[in-house]
Each structure stands twice: as C-alpha cells, then as structure tokens.
Design a protein that fits this description.
The chain is an alpha+beta fold and about 600 residues long. It is built from 14 helices and 17 strands. It has 5 domains: about 170 residues, Beta-Lactamase (2-Layer Sandwich), CATH 3.30.450; about 80 residues, no CATH class; about 100 residues, Beta-Lactamase (2-Layer Sandwich); about 70 residues, Helix Hairpins; about 150 residues, Heat Shock Protein 90 (2-Layer Sandwich), CATH 3.30.565.10.
Length: about 600
C-alpha cells in the first residue's frame, strides 16, 4: 500500500514538474521576446536622439552658409567660427557638393586633397532618402565616427561625432528594465509554482479519471478534488459524466428492450436511413424477403431491387426528396399485399420526419386461411342449421292444419322432436368446438383413469352396440392415469364409438388398444372391422361438417362435427390423430395423448 502511495506521489510530482517546465518555458520565451523588442526599441530611440542632434547641427550649418552668403568655393573657411555656437564637442562638419567633391572639412586643412565622397554610405543614403547615417572609421583622419549626412539639393552637409566612449555610452540602452523583467519573472515563477501545485493535482486526477475511462474501467469510487475554481470545474465534469453514464445506461436498457422485442416479434422489421442504408433489422425480416424474392442470400438493402417491392420502392422514393414536406403529426405510410407460393405477406412502411423509414413484413397466410375457413364454417353452420329448422317448421305447419288425424299429429310431433334434438346436438357441438378453438384456458384438468372412462363410454352405448351386434375389445395392459379434462376425453371416445356404430355396419368388432408408450406419450389405436372409406376422404375427414356420404350421414342423425371434436380435443391434450383403412378391413384411428400437461 505504501509503495502504491509513493508511486502516486512520485507521479504527481513528476507531472507537476513537467507542467511547471512547460509553462516556465512558455513564460521565458515570452520574456525573451519582450526583451528583444524592448532592446531594439531602446536602441532605435537612442539613434534617433543622436541623429536629431546631428540634424540640428546640419541645419545650423546650412542656415549659416545661406545667411552669410558664403561662396562654397572660396569662403567656407568662415564656418570655423560656427563652432562657437555648437554645444557639442568633438563634432566634425564636412561640406560636399552634388558631385562628391569635398568643399570644406573642419578637421582637414586642405579638403582639396580628400578623395571623392559621392559613394560614401551616408551620402548615397542622403541622395535617395534625404538623409543617411553610418558608423565607420574615416580613411582621412583614421578616427571612428558616427556620420550623419543631409541633402540640401545644391550640396551635402555631413556632421560626424567621434564614436568614442561618450557616444557609445549614449547609444547603449538602459539596463534597468532588464532588472525589472528579471524581478517580474521571479515573482511570476513563484506565483506559478503555487498555482501549479493546485492545478497539477486537479489535472492529475482528471488524467487518471480519463485513463480509467479509456481503458473501459467502471468508476464507482467518488473522486475528491482540491478546493477552488478548478476543483469546482472538475466536480462539474464528474457530475456531467455521472449523468451521461446514467443516460447511457437507460438508453442501453431501452435498446436491449427494443432488440428483445424485435427478436420476439413474428413480424419482419427493418429501419433504413434516407440513403436506404440499413440501421437495424431482425431475423424475420431476412427470412421473409428471402421467401418473397426466392433468393437465399439477399440482403435487406437489396429489397429495393426486387420486383415484388417495386410499389414500396416508389413510395419511399417519393418522400426522400427534400423538397417534399412531411407532416410530423401525420406521417406518410404505405401498405401492400404480396403473394408468393401459396403464402400471403403484408407490407407496411412509414417514413419519419427525418426521412428515415421503417419497413414491416407480416406473414398473414394463416390469418387469410383462417378467414376463409371461418367463412366456410359460417356458411356450413347456416346450411346445417337451416335443414332441421326447415323440417321443424314444416311439421309445425302441418300440425297447425285442423284436418290431420291424431295418428299423423303424433307422428309429426315425434319427427319434429327428433329434429329439435338434432338441432340441439348441433348447437352443442358447435359451441364445444368454438370453446376449444378460442377459450382453451377455460377447460379444467384433473386426474383421470382412462380405463374407467372407456368402459363408461362403452356402457353408455350398450343398447346401440347390442342393436348392431358389435363386439368390443379393450386392450389396456395397465391402468392409465392422465392429467386431463374428463368431459373432453369422454367426447373423444364417445364420438369414435358412435361413428363406428353408425357407419361401420352390423356384426363388427371394435378394438381399443394402447399399443405403445414412451416418456412423453401414450399411443392408441381405435379400429373397427366394418366398411372401409375411399382414401381421398381421409385428407378431409376431420374437417367440420365434412361427410363421406352426406345423405346417409343425415339419415343416421350425424352433425358432421364428431371427428372435428375428436381432433381438437386430442390436440388440446398435447396429442395428434390420423385415420386410414385397417389392413383387415374397416377404419383405424391412431392417436397420442401427452403424459404431462
């Protein structure tokens, strides 16, 4: 623990030193820049002062020549008296004509022997800019001078000061401001050290915080920053991070909810950008577009090239144009139906205000089939109900006739009663089927002894079995105990027995056999040795109101719903049923019942 603390302190110290070096370097560079600028400024100021004094002497000299009307060729020697009016010592005055010939020099007795001065640096500058200066050693006297020349159109007046210790000291800049800069640097350095002591701690913690974030580390411990403005700013940054983390977590939760919802949906859903690029989609979407396009490797972005989606593509394109406005309160939507290989798909699309859009594909094949089946069932129910009602009404009309005999009246009443019973059975069967189809949870389950139930069914049909001379063989090797709805299982075996009695013929054998079982199911066969059925009927034998022979079925009082009830009741108990002709003649039903419900 001590090693870790020591390491953190060393890191903190190293970071503070590094930050101090950086800032000190910046400040030092700034100081040097100020020093350089100030030095040049002072130097330029001193030279300006020097040249101003020399310019005044040049003006005084030229004014003296004009005022005295001195001839430059003969009488310039009178300029020697001008030195009484010049306050500065060690000043050399030279008069040069426009061709560079020296006419007068205060320190040379015979100026005619001096070389041409037209190409002296200060004279050349004076030719171009009116005045010029230069520091150099004189080839005539051998002394070093500070030369200043001024152009007066007809001649040049050159004033030179001996570049001795006095002039050099005058031109040297003051060093006082250097002292002030040094003091300022030291004071700033001290203040900077104190400030950095606080800033470095804050920055180091912020750096550690950022490093932990970049490494994907979850930060749960509270970070405490030093007091002060930087600490407050850092605490605000942490507070903003905490809020962003909470918001990100909330968004992630909602995102996972949406993903789970999309995966659980039986619909195919995909979201696209205005450029028709995929944002999100679920697996059903890929499955459905593969089924519609008949391609196994088509991607979600290729649906706009499939001909079955051309209407959808045209709709989307019409709203991707930015010139077309989209009402946020009434988003444009599209709907279409696509048929492919006996399957029906519903396409639905919505374009959002940012011109992204959603495409939803639903497989409505089952819904469409159920719709057709319901229409057929409704038609069949109406037809089946119409027959007994019509017969009952006919008998009632006959009974309403006072001319019929008592024997006929009794006969008509009996026939009407028989039809009313058939009508009641029909309504009861329809109600039972509807209940199994739409409200299966309303059926209660209990422990049922299947052996006892089958014998109970046999006993309830004893008179019918005796009338047809039917022999019943029940082969159950052991008691079969199920968690089942007793009423429905009774209907299963009652309808199978009743169906065999009515349509199997006389002198037949009816067999109930539990021929197999495994860990999940009991397997049963129910057969009779009576009449067989053409194979084409077995595909529809469990449909509602389907009859192998309509006329004979109605004569025998059947509702056409018995086998439909059998199939639905067995499926409600987790099993399946099939039918076919028995190898020894007659009809055989094979079905299963689940052991665990």
């Amino acid at each position: 623990m001590r090693i870790i603390r020591l390491g953190n302190q060393m890191l903190k110290l190293k970071y503070r030193q590094k930050l101090f070096v950086y800032l000190s370097g910046i400040f030092l560079l700034f100081t040097m820049l100020v020093l350089f600028l100030q030095y040049n400024r002072e130097k330029a100021f001193k030279r300006e002062q020097m040249e101003m004094n020399l310019d005044n002497i040049a003006e005084l000299t030229y004014n003296y020549i004009e005022k005295k009307n001195l001839d430059p060729k003969t009488s310039l020697s009178q300029l020697d008296s001008l030195y009484y009016y010049i306050p500065t010592d060690n000043i050399r005055i030279t008069i040069i004509n426009m061709f560079g010939k020296v006419l007068y020099d205060s320190e040379v007795s015979d100026p005619t022997k001096m070389e041409n001065h037209l190409y002296r640096p200060e004279i050349r500058l004076a030719q171009t800019s009116g005045n010029g200066s230069h520091i150099r050693e004189s080839s005539t006297t051998g002394y070093e001078y500070y030369y200043y020349a001024k152009n007066y159109s007809d001649l040049f007046v050159r004033v030179a000061a001996h570049y001795d210790v006095e002039v050099k000291n005058f031109l040297n800049i003051e060093k006082t401001f250097l002292f002030y800069l040094l003091v300022l640097f030291l004071v700033t350095w001290g203040i900077l050290s104190l400030v950095l002591r606080n800033i470095s701690g804050v920055l180091l913690k912020l750096k550690d915080f950022a490093t932990r974030l970049s490494n994907g580390e979850k930060i749960e411990d509270k970070i405490v920053f030093p007091e002060g403005e930087f600490g407050e700013i850092s605490n605000q940054i942490i507070e903003i991070y905490d809020k962003l983390t909470a918001a990100k977590s909330s968004v992630e939760i909602e995102k996972n909810k949406m993903f789970s919802h999309l995966i659980a949906l039986n619909e195919g859903i995909a979201f696209f950008t205005p450029q028709k690029k995929k944002i999100l989609r679920n697996n059903h979407f890929i499955q459905f577009i593969n089924s519609i396009s008949k391609e196994s490797n088509i991607s979600e972005e290729q649906i706009f090239k499939v001909k079955e989606f051309r209407k959808l593509n045209a709709f989307v394109d019409s709203y991707l144009d930015e010139d077309k406005e989209i009402d946020k309160k009434d988003l444009p939507h599209f709907e279409d139906v696509v048929y492919r290989d006996k399957k029906t798909f519903n396409l639905h699309a919505i374009v959002f205000s940012d011109r992204s859009f959603e495409v939803v594909i639903r497989d409505i094949t089952k819904i469409e089939k159920q719709k057709i089946i319901k229409e057929q069932i409704t038609s069949n129910i109406a037809h089946e109900l119409k027959t007994p009602i019509t017969i009952i009404l006919g008998y009632l009309e006959l009974l309403n006739n006072n001319d019929i005999s008592k024997e006929d009246a009794k006969k008509y009443i009996g026939n009407a009663y028989a039809q009313s019973e058939r009508l009641s059975d029909l309504i009861e069967d329809i109600s039972l089927l509807q209940k199994m189809s739409e409200a299966r949870e309303r059926f209660s389950f209990e422990t049922v002894n299947l052996n006892d139930l089958i014998y109970e069914v046999k006993d309830s049909l004893a008179l019918s079995l005796q009338a047809k001379n039917c022999d019943v063989k029940i082969r159950l090797s052991k008691p079969i105990i199920l968690n089942a709805n007793r009423s429905l299982l009774f209907s299963v075996f009652y309808n199978l027995f009743d169906n065999a009695i009515k349509y199997g013929g006389e002198n037949i054998e009816i067999s109930v056999n539990n021929y197999l079982e495994d860990s999940n199911y009991y397997y049963f066969s129910f057969s009779n040795t009576g009449a067989t059925i053409e194979k084409k009927h077995f595909l529809r034998i469990f449909e509602r109101f389907y009859r192998v022979d309509n006329d004979r079925s109605r004569e025998k009082g059947g509702t056409g719903l018995g086998l439909a009830i059998v199939k639905n009741a067995i499926q409600l108990h987790g099993g399946e049923i099939t039918a076919g002709n028995h190898q020894n003649g007659g009809v055989e039903f094979l079905f299963t019942l689940s052991k665990s419900l």
